[in-house]
Amino acid sequence: MNLSTGPARRATVSVNCSTQPAVEASSRAVAVCDVGDLNLDGRVDLADITMFVDALLNPNANLSQIWASDLNCDLVTDGLDIQAFIEAIVN
Question: Would you tell me how many other CB atoms lie within 10 Å of the CB of residue 82?
């Protein structure tokens, strides 16, 4: 994992999706959960849908929620993660 901060206290993070790092960002610790398990109950299921949609639509969602929503591991939470999220729920 690489973490660098710029002058505006913005964090740029490179994360290997096969690990579960904890990073320091904006002076607070943020734990990254298993990809897709947004509510941290150990499963990717229907209970994660609301938080997944929030991460997609809310630019102010917390970092761990955004990272857990990046199911295709391209370091961006966007519409390209929706199919992988649905497959994670179904499987």
Answer: 15
Which domain covers residue 10, as residue numbers? Answer: 2-90
Per-residue pLDDT of the chain (91 residues; tens, 9 = 90+): 444 333 433 334 444 455 444 444 444 444 445 789 999 999 999 999 999 999 999 988 888 899 899 999 898 899 999 999 999 999 8
In this structure, what token pair is assigned to residue 82? 């929706």
Number of domains in the chain: 1
pTM here is 0.63
Q: Which of 42, 33, 41 is nearest to 70 (CA)?
A: 33
- Terminal Cα distance for the chain, rounded: 28
- Cα–Cα dist 57/90, whole Å: 22
What residues are paired with 25 via a beta bridge?
28
Other residues' Cβ atoms within 10 Å of the Cβ of residue 12: 11
